[in-house]
């Protein structure tokens, strides 16, 4: 029998998986179960309300970023001592899952990730059987699957992680115990030093630096050493001395993010330019 601690904030559940992987069905199943375990409400937050044009959002990085920001703000508003929040979304970017994890740490509430595992062909087949307004185009479907970043049980923001295969039942009791009986992760210095509203800064920091990395990887394919690479949203170009790998860029990106979290800038439009300046110093030293 689950014991719900009355002195804690209620938890956040992050659904995760390919498009058309059964997340909405699993979220509804979990919501019905959790309603029997709490006297509060169980909120299911959908990533695409009625009338949303998915093709338009996922074809434009800025619109997609804005959509994720709205989702996170919605989740923040719903996290209370009484209610449970289930985010029914792909949550396919690990940086976004990290941002949500930071929100739960700031709120001192537990969380978990439920990863709905499907074969690529299965998700594509399920997608084609959907109603037209819910269906992704074949091209977008393939792109989103390629961009998907699997949750890992070794990442603190993905723990506790529950995986469920397409033909297996959810382990509802274990999920309930993780949500209602585990202690919330204590806030660390990075989450305490900024107010809850400023988690948007961390989100922009993650997205802006990722956009810079993507732009550099694309630009260097058609460049030669000595060129100056233009980077979107950055006034300063990157001095292209030599080809750099994704692994190297991601390592420098993590270092820049760690520093920036403790030294946030007031003008978030400067993030991309500051990251380029940082790369010019580190890559060319």
TrEMBL record:
Keywords for this protein: ATP-binding, Nucleotide-binding
Residues passing through the membrane, by range: none
GO molecular function, a single term: ATP binding
Basic and acidic residues bias locations: 44-69
GO biological process entries: regulation of transcription by RNA polymerase II; tRNA modification
Residue ranges, annotated region (Disordered): 44-71
Keyword Nucleotide-binding: yes
InterPro entries cross-referenced by the UniProt entry: KTI12/PSTK (IPR013641), P-loop_NTPase (IPR027417)
UniProt-listed Gene3D superfamilies: P-loop containing nucleotide triphosphate hydrolases (3.40.50.300)
Family assignment from sequence similarity: Belongs to the KTI12 family.
The name this protein goes by in its record: Protein KTI12 homolog
Protein species of origin: Elysia chlorotica (Eastern emerald elysia)
